[in-house]
UniProtKB/TrEMBL annotation:
All residue ranges annotated as the PAS domain in the record: 27-57
Record-linked InterPro entries: MCPsignal_dom, PAC, PAS, PAS-assoc_C, PAS-like_dom_sf, PAS_4
4Fe-4S as UniProt keyword: no
SUPFAM superfamilies (alphabetical): Methyl-accepting chemotaxis protein (MCP) signaling domain, PYP-like sensor domain (PAS domain)
Source domain of life: Bacteria
This protein's UniProt keywords: Transducer
Domain Methyl-accepting transducer residues, every copy: 120-306
GO annotation terms (biological process): signal transduction
Lineage summary: Bacteria, Bacillati, Bacillota, Bacilli, Lactobacillales
Name of this protein: Methyl-accepting chemotaxis sensory transducer with Pas/Pac sensor
Pfam families, A to Z: MCPsignal, PAS_4
Gene Ontology cellular component annotations, sorted alphabetically: membrane
Start and end residues of each PAC domain: 84-139
Length: 306
């Protein structure tokens, strides 16, 4: 009597377990010809069929052509009919030709002796909503990755353009500095010439003074000579004054050149600092591009794994 009670208890437990599976999972069975021999409400509802319309249908009715015409489809059924189970996320087709995603397990059913496969059962869970959310997130990640890649490429391109422009500015600054240096040398030459003129004017003035003294000593015989001496003296003074003005102008030009040279030097330093910062920016953009590629790969892996 005790053994009978245990058997009865196990039987009740099995019934409860089967009912729980029926209530919560989509279940379908196929014969060895891949036709449906049993289907529960959950499976029919998930694929938007009436139960009676599912019975007798071929398995490929629920698959898209690119799958049931592929070697993978042949391999799936060869393995199942040879006793090999299969579990994975699968894409199937509902009654309206729409995509449905299932987390499914196929397993072979053996005869009473356990020697021969007489059918295949599939238990599944509808994960379409979850899969669509995953695909949406994955797509957003891919779009973000593309956007980051485009932005980083644009940043790198603009940075490289700026580098070229800054190098051109440095070249022009160097050329300008060299030209100004040459001008400074010429200014020094002009200063030297002006000094020579001033020296000559001073000597001429001294000679004119001596001539005037000698003319005065000569009395009326030196009057004409004295007039010439005074004119020479006057011209010598004008030359000296003109040379002095030229000297002042040259010095002013020199001072301005010094200011421009200093300005060019500071500009060059700023440009070189900007180049360093641009190199840093380009490096950061390259880092963004690398992260973008990483996000893209991870998004693909996420879609594959989940």
């Amino acid at each position: 009597m005790e053994y009978v009670g245990e058997v009865k208890a196990h039987s009740i437990y099995d019934e409860v377990l089967v009912k729980a599976l029926e209530d919560n999972l989509a279940i379908v069975r196929f014969d060895t010809n891949k036709r449906v021999t049993y289907v529960n409400d959950n499976f029919a509802h998930a694929l938007k069929y009436r139960k009676e319309d599912v019975l007798g249908k071929e398995h490929k009715t629920f698959c898209f052509p690119d799958f049931y015409n592929s070697p993978d489809y042949v391999e799936l059924w060869n393995n199942l009919l040879n006793g090999v189970s299969f579990q994975d996320k699968i894409m199937r087709k509902n009654a309206y030709g729409e995509v449905i995603w299932l987390e499914a397990t196929y397993f072979p059913i053996y005869d009473a002796l356990g020697n021969r496969v007489i059918g295949v059962s599939k238990v599944a869970t509808d994960i379409t909503e979850r899969q669509l959310k995953i695909e949406a997130v994955t797509q957003e990640l891919l779009e973000l990755s593309k956007s980051m890649a485009v932005s980083s490429r644009n940043g790198i391109s603009k940075g490289e353009d700026l580098l070229e422009k800054s190098k051109a500015m440095i070249r022009e600054s160097n050329d300008s500095t060299e030209n100004l240096s040459e001008l400074l040398k010429k200014n020094e030459s002009v200063k030297s010439i002006v000094k020579t003129i001033q020296d000559i004017a001073s000597q001429t003035n001294l000679l004119a003074l001596n001539a005037s003294i000698e003319a005065a000593r000569s009395g009326k015989y030196g009057l004409g000579f004295g007039v010439i001496a005074e004119e020479v003296k006057r011209l010598s003074k004008q030359v000296h004054e003109s040379a002095e003005n030229i000297k002042l102008d040259v010095q002013a030009v020199t001072n301005n050149i010094d200011l421009v040279v200093d300005g060019n030097t500071h500009l060059k330093e700023h440009i070189e600092q900007s180049e360093k910062e641009i190199h840093v920016a380009i490096s950061e953009f390259n880092g963004i591009a690398a992260e973008s590629d990483k996000i893209s790969r991870q998004a693909d892996e996420l879609d594959t794994i989940i």
